[in-house]
Structure formats: structure tokens, C-alpha cells
Fold this sequence. Notes:
Elements: H1 2-30, H2 33-52, H3 54-60, H4 78-98, H5 106-112, H6 117-135, H7 138-141, H8 147-174, H9 176-205, H10 209-223, H11 228-234, E1 241-244, E2 253-256, H12 257-274, H13 279-290, H14 294-316, H15 325-345, H16 351-379, H17 387-418, H18 420-425
Antiparallel strand pairs: 1-2
Amino acid sequence: MSFFKEFGHFMMIGARAQAKWELDMSNRILREPKRLAVFGLLLLPIILGSVAFAEDIAGALPSVLGGKNTYCPSFYTNTIFLASIGVGIAAGLITGCIGAGGGFIIAPALMSAGVKGILAVGTDLFHIFAKAIMGSVLHRKLGNISVSLAVTFLIGSIGGATLGGYINRTLYELNPVLSDAFITTIYVFMLGFLSFYTLLDFLQSRKPAAEKNKSEGHSVKAEESTTRLSIKIQSINFGPMLHFDEGVVPGGRKISAIFLVLSGALVGLAAAIMGVGGGFLTFPIFVYMLGVSSATTVGTDIFQIVFTAGYAGLGQYAIYGFIFYTLAMGMLLGSLIGIQIGSLVTKVVPGATIRGFYAVAVMAGFVNRFFALPVKLGKMDIISISPETGKFLENIGIYVFFVVISVFSIWVFTTFFKNIKQLKGEGVH
């Protein structure tokens, strides 16, 4: 029980850090005309192509992308583009309204819509990379980046991303169903832990004040950079040693480079396999395990997301044909809209309600992937299940997922429009 709670808390810290990064990137893109212009230029070929060349492009494409037939074509249609905007809006609403990463629902949503898992992962990575490039302000964050930590971390993350991409591609070449089953299983475990913690967090938020304060005190303590684990890791003198946080504590801190390489490898592996950018792991690992200050962690996290997502997306998926560019740009457009609306709604909605909705949303993602797993295991003869039963279970997961996400999205939009006068009164534009 304690392990489940601690691991869920660890993931929740990362989800919140990822959401903050998503909101920062969104604000920088939307509030600067030059960045908006770049975004418009990226969208223009897709929009023009849909008008004049969509059918021609469809006919010219090979029937095989990345070595196997794809479930979805990597070219533009109006329906596909609008659907991708909807997925992006839903993810953005969760991120902005709840303050925790809504990107966890993107891959499950795409896979439920019939996109192969490896294509969903590659597309999500490209969407994250595009957002990072357009919204990144690395030159403003250089003071918060420890160059030695960042470079050493990237050595590991590049290696991990290479391995993760190789695993996904190899499984896909062996059997596309095996690839989907593998990615689905990873999401089942991840969303299972996260849904357990978010539900517990919601129930604790409804407890009397004394118990609630006690719980929140534990949460704050767990996020401090000087945890017992981080002190123990920093005490291991295994060269080369890296020095950092000189401006935070007298004399700074030091840590063995091997821990940065291993951490980077884990983040890169998760990013390449799941298509989540890796930011949701970097923050809790740096702060909770390695004892790096929050300021240094934020700067380094921004730095690593650009390179990890870029390398994983382009180097491990794009060159093999595993990116659906239409979906990626549609999701980016939708998420920019959703994040802004979601962040405004937090000003007029109680925190307990927001926690409850996030718990339900994550649980829906877990149910979606959990019920999708039997049919895939059945196709590989790992379990005995009739195609009809497997399809029935899969449909349950799909309906539960999209109904919950749709209800949540409608509720956020309704709350936003009902309170738009109040929001304007607070000076929100």
C-alpha cells in the first residue's frame, strides 16, 4: 500500500511539472506574434494540401509506412484534422484546468481511434517537439541550467531514446499487435498507479481540515530537494563528480555522473516508448531523488525536453514513417486553445472539484487501456478469449473513455462561458 502511494505521488509531481511546462510553452506561443506566425506557417501546407492535393497525395503514398500497413493514412483529411484538434483540446483542458499533464490521454485516445500504437507514440513526440521548439526560451533560462548536469543527462537520454525507439520498432516489425499490446501494457501500469493516487488525493481533499493539512504536509515534504534518498545518492563518491547549485547552497552540491546518465537513460527510454516527452519524469527524479534545486531542475528540464523529444521523435520515428503530421499539428492547435480555457476555469472552480475530475479522467484512461488489452492478448494466443468478447470489452473501454472526456470537456466549456463576465472582471483577457 505504501509503495503504491509513494509511486503515485512520485508520478503526480511529474504530471504537475509537465503541466506547468505545457502552460508556459502555450503562453509563449500565443502571446508573441512571431511565434504565432511560425505556427501559422506550419499549418498552412496542411490546410492548402487538403483543398487541392489530398486525394493525389493519398494515391501517391506507398501502402507501407515503417515496414507495415498503417491503420491510418499519414495525409490530410478534414475529418482527421478536426478529430485531432478535439483530442488536443481535451488534453489541453485537462492540463490547464487541473494543473497536471493531460498528455497522458493522447496516446490512448489515438489508439482508441484506430491509430497503431507506434504511430500514436511517434506523433505525440513530434507534437511535443514542435511545441518545445516554438515555445522554448532557452536563452532566458541559461542562468538556471547546469551545463554539466544537462549534457551528462542528455548522454543518457539519447541512449535511452535510441533503445526505446528500437524496442518499439522491433516489436512492430515482429507483430503490430504485439507492439500495440506492449505500449498498452505500459500505459495500463502507468495510468493505474496515477489513477490510484489521484483518487486517494481527491478523497483526502474532502477530509476534515486537520487531516487534510497533515496530508498536504506530507506532500510538501516529499517534494523537498533534500530528501533522505537524495542525500544518500549525493554521498556516493564515484567519479567523475559533477558540481551544481553553487548559487543555492554554500559550496554547492555534487553528484556522481553515473546517476545523471542512468536518470537520462530512464527518461529517454520512457519518452521513446510512451511518446510523452520525458518531462513528467525529469522533475521528480531531479528534485525527489537527486536533490537538485527546483530552479536548476526547471531550466534543465526545458533544455532536455527539446533535445530528447526532438531526437526521439525525428531520429527514432520520423525517418521510419511513424509520424502522422496532420494529427500532430491538429493536436498542437487544439492544446493551445484548451490549455488557455482550462487555466481560466481554475479561477472560478473549487480545487476539490478539479481534483475529482482529474481522478475520473485518469481512471477513464486506465479503463480504456485495461479493457483494450484482452483482445490484443487474445490475437497473440496468450489468453483464450473469443473475438466477440474481446471486441465487447474493448468497446466498453472506448465508450467509457470518450464519454468521460467529453463530459469533462463540456463541463469546462460550460463553466467558462457561464463565468466569462466574472473572468473579465478579474482582468483576464
